[in-house]
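Students often ask what a 'structure token' actually looks like in practice. Rather than answer in the abstract, let us consider AraC-like DNA-binding protein, a protein of 284 residues. Its sequence is given first.
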Amino acid sequence: MEMTLPFTHNKNLKQHNHNEDFILLETPTIERLNFPVKLDVTISIICFKGHLKGHSNMRYFETGAPSLIVLLAGHTVTIENVSADFSALFIVMSKTFTSSLNIEEHLPVFLSLHNQPFIALKEAELTSLADYFKTVQKVLETDNPSTTKILQHLTKAYFYGFGYNAHNIERHTQQEKKPRLEELVENFLNQVQDNFKQERGIEFYADKLCVTPKYLSKVIKEHNGLSAKQWIDDYVVWEAKALLKSTHMTIQQISNELNFPSQSFFGRYFKRSVGLSPLAYRKM
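Now compare that with the structural description of the same chain:
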């Protein structure tokens, strides 16, 4: 597979690679990109040292060590800051591989990763993750006709075990009731993430959340610095930027994907926000 990653890394780094579906990168030197990337792979990053800052689906995240970062396929991601002492192990899995595990819908931890890709680890959990990485590494170094099945079973077993612990942490966090306004903001962001291709009017989201458009815009502005309408527009443009830079889709296809009535309408919408036409932005 031609990996679409939200960073560049040293290409001469030794990789453990199985059929382009499962790739291990050991402590790569990474550099950030200046644009959002639409991921076509799931990337698990086991962080031992340093920090990483970025956005996933326009939600800010900042990680410290020790931690696990899981950037899911289909998400639009930017990596904006990598500390000089950053040290981590990377596991890159294709959609084909993760689909073969058949676990995402059964694990609540995956639902929480859609909103927050960062999970703080205890030392024992960090050691467990490192052991999993080493075990998989050894599997990839052997010539075994059952390698795919071994990888599937090891990864599935790990995520079930780790997912249980992570979900307990998530459930405990949820039991600490959030302030009503914070909950409203989070629900609004979730609704935009799910519906931005079809719905760009604030009235739709206000109706979904049982508040008035004026009140919703006021709350979002106070919490995020942007009005609700601006947040919706920015989310659409964020997605468009990622599709322009990290896919081979034509501008017409991107316009259709984002449900614009025409390519020219999409072009005007994009240029009003970015100051460049979609084609000019792609060529940057």
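One point worth highlighting: The first strand starts at residue 7 and ends at 9. Ask yourself how you might have guessed this from the sequence alone, and why that guess would often be unreliable.
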